[in-house]
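Appendix B. Raw example, untouched.
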Amino acid sequence: MAKDLMCSPGDYVVYPTHGVGKVVEIENQEYSGHKLKLFVISFDRDRMTLRVPTDKAEVSGLRKLSSKKMMETALTTLKGRARIKRTMWSRRAQEYEAKINSGDPVAIAEVVRDLHRNTGQPDQSFSERQIYEAALDRLACEVAAVEKTDPEKATEKLESILSASSSAPTSATDAKPDPTPAAA
């Protein structure tokens, strides 16, 4: 994938479990007698640097930023109706975390949509709020990178889309349940 990825220093990429980062350089290092070519990716928000071997980029899930069309699909997903499965919170939380860590902007948008609360709706639990904010932040960072703006403006844009689709149910119990049966 390293040849397909064609990352060069200065390019923005998405690492599934960490979100949007910037390729700082492509370096060569030697570990235990093996020469490796590495993408050095900086995640400014987390103050973290990640080194990914170029030949393992595909396996690790490293990818270029989404296209504008893919981001439009994700934003359209936000406008949809929340689908809350009638399963235990712990199971739903695991599913939401898996969607966030997948790096797929549409799946992340589904998490944001499903966990968004309008005014007048019951408050979220602490863990619900954490997952919602993590998903919102991850999606906003990619929207900001694609639209070449800052994450705060992207967050405002996402929240305005969510608020505009306030034709959503007035309470979580009124939400349309997901028609797929829950796995036991």
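End of appendix B.
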